[in-house]
Design a protein that fits this description.
Elements (H helix, E strand, L loop, with lengths): L1 E2 L2 E9 L5 E6 L12 E3 L2 E7 L7 E6 L5 E2 L1
Amino acid sequence: MTLDGVDGIGFVVLAPNARRVAVVGDFNFWNARAMPCGARGRLLELFIPHAKAGDHYKFDIVGPHGHQLR
């Protein structure tokens, strides 16, 4: 997608009980603190500029009791 003239990838996840969700991958050196998702109602979303199809990524989720989910 393109946001404000910048190409990238938009991520959306439904995780209403999560304490924190971040997207980690090739584009941020797998750093969970670099790109936390923002809440929009029950959805958590994040736009990552310059991310592209083929980049490796995963969601880093901290559950309601503070434990990282695998």
